[in-house]
Amino acid sequence: MTYKIELKDAGKGYTYDQDKIISPEETVERFRERLAKLDLDILSRTRRIDNGRLGIPVFFSECGEDAKRITRTSKQMGKGGTPAQSEASAVMELAERFSFFSFADKEENFFYATPEELGDRALPYEQIIRSVHDTPEDGLNAKPIYDKLRLKWTQGYNLTTREEVLIPFDWFYMINEFNGPSAGNCTEEALIQGICELVERHTSSLVSHGSLEVPGIRLSSFTDPLVKEMLKKYKDQGIQVHASDFSLDTGIPTVGVLAWDPSTFPKTSEIVWTAGTAPDPQKAMSRALTETAQLAGDFNTGSNYVASGLPKFTDIKDAEFITRPKSMVNIQDLPDLSSDNIRIEVENLVQTLEQREFHILSISTMHQGLQVPAFYNIMPGAHFRERAVNASVGMFLARLITETLDPVQALARLDELENALGGRYYTSFYKGLMHNALYDGESALTEFQAAMDREPARLNLPDICSHMGACLKDLGQYSRAVKICEKGLEIDPQRPDLLNTMGACHFMDKVYDRAIICFEKAIKVDPSLGINYANIGSSYRELGQIDTAIKYYESALELDPTLDFARENIEKLRKK
Question: Percent of the chain at pLDDT above 70?
Fold first, then answer.
């Protein structure tokens, strides 16, 4: 065996907030010492960003130039019940992301081959079927196409079977994206972090997609001193907190928290819904409460967070299945897999998941210079809210075909897939994308309409509407584009891409006030996209409101310095 992850005893040296082998102060000190030995600009500074209303600290770790280039972001957020832990969380988030993208960008970490060429050395095909929740019959029908597709492979380790395995990295990154990277002071800490995140996203997806009736948790049952202290801080500010048991049938404690401030919502706050997973159920609650504080902006700043594991509620009445649960439990009723030894906790998690037929695959992504243990963790079969509904091997093969082959080759391979599986909406959808890439808008529209006619799952319709709307916009059919985008927004109102297309269409029709409304709605859903600030700037420019236009262009460039047209427009407007 050439690739192995060995678990070693890891006693807990710090347990007040999160369970770690060393204190948060030591964590930050170690990280800075390692940075000092590197000829890389990774960390610019850390700073506390909450306004103190809640008294639950939130930190930024601001990226240095090398980290910005590699991580594609300018900062990472950290959370914790104490300032020291929040700062430690922020720097470890940076270490996690820097390590992951450094690994992913390094071609020598990968090789290309077809599953057929690798044979038994490749990850078993049943794990591929499980990764997208496909039926065995459809999965087997798609296997001949899968076996002949060149994939990007890397070495990994199956913690469940304790054996080396070759993992198709591009397949799982397509499904998981940023769900699963982790870092820690030791291997065991990093693995706990990653596995718990996967379980948290899995149960959150099931609860949110199904609006599942889960038990509420009595807040009076918590005994952890820090949890009690944080709950009091929320209560003292009039913020309502609802805790839920998201553990479902996983055997691993996951706590959901929904919090909102009736005195500031919706003017300067949002309804925050998030979750936390940990071997110890009380620590799961601690994670959820600090995550809530991180997302909430102290419930009085008007900030907007980007929804990930759980969607945002815009009306508290829609959350009644959480705020008015049919049953209540105590926190002591949740599973407890905790131990004073983090190694044992990792083994408990892996064994518990194995009983539910989940395997844990881990790829070491540790940066050789930084030397912070880091992994990309994969749990085939885990659900993710952001991924497609009614997924299948065929659907993800279609996507991978379009992402790895040129459009002409992709169209031919998509025809093969359609012949193997019959007429599926996603083969037409991806054919539409390829025709669009070939600048054949009319053929693209025909395929998008065929995808609609093949009755996809309702929650997959917004994706079709998004690309169909963009295609219509490019063809100059602005009113049709707006209507198709509105159809997608009726199903999923939190789609900034649909709102952006609508705004662009109104802009081209010179209805600038409507364009601004659409772009503002897009920002409300995802405040991290600089293009929508720039588009508002262009709308105000056309309305002759120069100062306002410049302000929005500047905001756009703060978020995305690559928006050259925003910079050019600022220069032109200042010369007027």
Answer: 99
Q: Please name every residue paired with 62 in a beta bridge, in sequence order, or none if there are none.
A: 45, 75
Work out whether strand 181-183 and strand 374-378 pair parallel, antiparallel, or are unpaired: antiparallel
CA-based nearest residue to 73, from 57, 59, 93:
93
357 Cβ neighbours under 8 A, 6+ residues apart = 130, 381
Q: Strand, helix or coil at 171?
A: helix
Question: Which residue's structure tokens are 């939190």?
Answer: 494
Closest among 196, 153, 164 to 5, alpha carbons compared = 164
Tell me the H-state helices in 509-563: 512-525, 530-542, 546-559
CA dihedral 549, 551, 553, 558 (to 10 degrees): -170
- Tell me which residue has tokens 């929040």: 86
Nearest alpha-carbon partner for 237 in 188, 292, 192 = 292
Q: Where are the alpha helices (DSSP H) in 375-511?
A: 393-404, 407-421, 425-437, 441-453, 461-474, 478-491, 496-508
Pairing between β-strand 43-48 and β-strand 254-260 as defined by DSSP bridges: unpaired
- Residue ranges in 168-214 assigned as alpha helix (H): 169-176, 187-210
From CA 239, how far away is CA 246, in angstroms rounded? 21
Cα 526 versus chain centre, distance:
13
Each residue of 476-515: pLDDT tens digit? 999 999 999 999 999 999 899 999 999 999 999 999 999 9
What six digits make up the tokens of 237?
Answer: 């500010």
Bridge partners (DSSP) listed for residue 75: 62
- Residues 292-307 pLDDT 10s: 999 999 999 998 888 8
Q: What own/partner pairs with CB < 8 Å and gap ≥ 24 does 227-235 have?
A: 227/282, 227/285, 227/286, 227/289, 229/81, 230/56, 230/81, 230/286, 230/289, 230/290, 230/293, 231/289, 233/54, 233/55, 233/56, 234/54, 234/259, 234/289
As a whole number of angstroms, the distance between CA 193 and CA 347 comes to: 13
β-strand 328-329 against 216-217: which pairing, if any? parallel
Beta bridge partners of 362: 157, 377
Question: What is the signed CA dihedral for 203, 205, 211, 214, rounded to 10 degrees?
Answer: 10
Q: Give the tokens for residue 163.
A: 């054996």
Residue 387 has pLDDT above 70, yes or no: no
The CB density around residue 406, as the number of other CB atoms within 10 Å, is 11
State the virtual CA torsion across 337, 340, 341, 346 in degrees, nearest 10. Answer: 20
Q: For 486, left (φ over 0), alpha (ψ -120 to 50), or beta?
A: alpha
Q: Which residue has the tokens 């990774």?
A: 42
Give the per-residue pLDDT at 1: 46
Instruction: Fill in the amino acid letter for 490.
Output: E
Q: Where do we find the tokens 């584009």?
A: 481
Query: Of 197, 165, 13, whose CA–CA distance to 100 is shortest?
Result: 197
156, 167 contact by CB (below 8 A):
yes
Residue 279 to residue 287: CA distance in whole angstroms: 12
